Amino acid sequence: MHAMKNAFQTVALIGKYMNPEMREQILALARFLAERQIGIFIEEKTAEQSQIKGYTTVHINAIGAYADLAVVLGGDGTMLSVARSLVDYQIPLVGVNRGRFGFLTDITSESMCEAMSLILAGEYQTEQRILLSATVMRNGEPVHQGRALNDVVINKNGMARLIELEVHIDGQFVHRQRADGLILATPTGTTAYSLSAGGPILHPMLDAIALVPICPHTLSNRPIAISSHSKVEITVVQAPDVRMHLDGQMQFELQQGDRILVERAKKTVTLLHLLGHSHYDMLREKLNWG
């Protein structure tokens, strides 16, 4: 009788840095996987911060070459940075929630071993999430480029004055707005900062981008949703102190006259969920809907 083949042979474990409770969780999951003859890699910073020894460690950028599944233990912030690092490798991600909200990390730490055994048995569903690619053009030259799974945010830094932005979509002029800033959110990002700014919640399967003004001077300046295949160009018309944030984790100082080109990134991120996972159940739970 042959042992049943697992859906994944090698698994990388990535944990939230600087979190002392994380060590026991990672070790418990590593032991569980080892018992099932799964090859285990621990992301090197995770191993270092959690003082884990005895397992093969790999740099975050090398995980895609070694593992065929990555398990992310942490909150949505950890998942965002891991997703951006691994998107080019097309390696599926599973999220174990150790944060507060956990829109992306939907497996509880209490049920992680049980959930992993179902995933290894092939009992999971996949979901593709789009990213945005943002390029800053200055005097006709690209000066900065990055990707975001949640959102690209252009906002004022510390000054009380409003900033003025001009928006074109697919080469067509949309408006010139004076506001505290503008959020361009993927469907994933519509439950993050965009939601706080009054933006719509888009289902993750929608091929759309939400453009959400932050505290616009003209109250009729409303959020809009556009095709994710559109190309958006934002020009910084007037701004004494403005910057661009990607997923709230990376920032770049902008100057007057800069043009920010935002479009859908070529590759998507694959998230794995347990069978029966419902986006609406998750929204109801996280947002306390009745």
TrEMBL record:
<feature type="binding site">
    <location>
        <position position="249"/>
    </location>
    <ligand>
        <name>NAD(+)</name>
    </ligand>
</feature>
<keyword id="KW-0963">Cytoplasm</keyword>
<comment type="function">
    <text>Involved in the regulation of the intracellular balance of NAD and NADP, and is a key enzyme in the biosynthesis of NADP. Catalyzes specifically the phosphorylation on 2'-hydroxyl of the adenosine moiety of NAD to yield NADP.</text>
</comment>
<protein>
    <recommendedName>
        <fullName>NAD kinase</fullName>
        <ecNumber>2.7.1.23</ecNumber>
    </recommendedName>
</protein>
<dbReference type="InterPro" id="IPR002504">
    <property type="entry name" value="NADK"/>
</dbReference>
<keyword id="KW-0418">Kinase</keyword>
<dbReference type="Pfam" id="PF20143">
    <property type="entry name" value="NAD_kinase_C"/>
</dbReference>
<feature type="binding site">
    <location>
        <begin position="76"/>
        <end position="77"/>
    </location>
    <ligand>
        <name>NAD(+)</name>
    </ligand>
</feature>
<dbReference type="Pfam" id="PF01513">
    <property type="entry name" value="NAD_kinase"/>
</dbReference>
<dbReference type="InterPro" id="IPR016064">
    <property type="entry name" value="NAD/diacylglycerol_kinase_sf"/>
</dbReference>
<keyword id="KW-0067">ATP-binding</keyword>
<keyword id="KW-0520">NAD</keyword>
<dbReference type="GO" id="GO:0046872">
    <property type="term" value="F:metal ion binding"/>
</dbReference>
<dbReference type="InterPro" id="IPR017438">
    <property type="entry name" value="ATP-NAD_kinase_N"/>
</dbReference>
<dbReference type="GO" id="GO:0005737">
    <property type="term" value="C:cytoplasm"/>
</dbReference>
<feature type="binding site">
    <location>
        <begin position="191"/>
        <end position="196"/>
    </location>
    <ligand>
        <name>NAD(+)</name>
    </ligand>
</feature>
<feature type="binding site">
    <location>
        <position position="161"/>
    </location>
    <ligand>
        <name>NAD(+)</name>
    </ligand>
</feature>
<feature type="binding site">
    <location>
        <position position="178"/>
    </location>
    <ligand>
        <name>NAD(+)</name>
    </ligand>
</feature>
<keyword id="KW-0808">Transferase</keyword>
<dbReference type="GO" id="GO:0051287">
    <property type="term" value="F:NAD binding"/>
</dbReference>
<dbReference type="GO" id="GO:0006741">
    <property type="term" value="P:NADP+ biosynthetic process"/>
</dbReference>
<dbReference type="GO" id="GO:0019674">
    <property type="term" value="P:NAD+ metabolic process"/>
</dbReference>
<feature type="active site" description="Proton acceptor">
    <location>
        <position position="76"/>
    </location>
</feature>
<dbReference type="InterPro" id="IPR017437">
    <property type="entry name" value="ATP-NAD_kinase_PpnK-typ_C"/>
</dbReference>
<keyword id="KW-0521">NADP</keyword>
<keyword id="KW-0547">Nucleotide-binding</keyword>
<dbReference type="GO" id="GO:0003951">
    <property type="term" value="F:NAD+ kinase activity"/>
</dbReference>
<feature type="binding site">
    <location>
        <begin position="150"/>
        <end position="151"/>
    </location>
    <ligand>
        <name>NAD(+)</name>
    </ligand>
</feature>
<feature type="binding site">
    <location>
        <position position="180"/>
    </location>
    <ligand>
        <name>NAD(+)</name>
    </ligand>
</feature>
<dbReference type="GO" id="GO:0005524">
    <property type="term" value="F:ATP binding"/>
</dbReference>
<comment type="similarity">
    <text>Belongs to the NAD kinase family.</text>
</comment>
